[in-house]
């Protein structure tokens, strides 16, 4: 069996375009969440011994 992990359009450093125009926006929290998701995917790929990780779209 061939195990594949697919992820698309992560937008790691683009938290909700325009959000920075609003005072008190949780930009860093959202950016941190996106990075944690990415980190979790990497850990999942290692743990599950994924054969191929395909990242597509805007990363």
Structure keywords:
59 residues; 1 helix; single chain; alpha+beta; elongated; two-stranded parallel ribbon
What does this protein look like?
- By secondary structure, this protein is an alpha+beta fold.
- The chain has one domain (4-56).
- The chain has one helix spanning 27-47, and strands at residues 4-8, 52-56.
- Strands 1-2 form a two-stranded parallel ribbon.
- The protein is elongated.
- The model has no long low-confidence stretch (mean pLDDT 85).
Sequence-ordered SSE layout with sheet pairings:
Elements: E1 4-8, H1 27-47, E2 52-56
Parallel strand pairs: 1-2
Into which percent range does the helicity of residues fall? Answer: 25-40%
- The unreliable regions are none
How many domains would you count in the coordinates?
1
Spatial strand order of the main sheet = 1-2
Tell me the span between the first and last alpha carbons.
28 Å
Q: How many alpha or pi helices?
A: 1
**Content-based structural category:** alpha+beta
The major beta sheet can be summarized as: 2 strands, parallel
Broad shape: elongated
Q: What is the number of strand segments?
A: 2
- What's the helix-strand series? EHE
Average of per-residue pLDDT values: 85
Radius of gyration, in angstroms, nearest whole number: 14 Å
Strand content: 15-25%
Nutshell version of this structure?
The chain has one helix at residues 27-47, and strands at 4-8, 52-56. By secondary structure, it is α+β, with helices and mostly antiparallel strands.
């Amino acid at each position: 069996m061939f195990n594949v992990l697919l992820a698309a359009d992560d937008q790691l450093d683009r938290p909700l375009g325009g959000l920075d125009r609003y005072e008190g926006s949780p930009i860093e929290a959202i950016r941190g969440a996106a990075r944690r998701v990415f980190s979790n995917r990497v850990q999942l790929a290692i743990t599950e011994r994924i054969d191929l990780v395909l990242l597509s779209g805007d990363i």
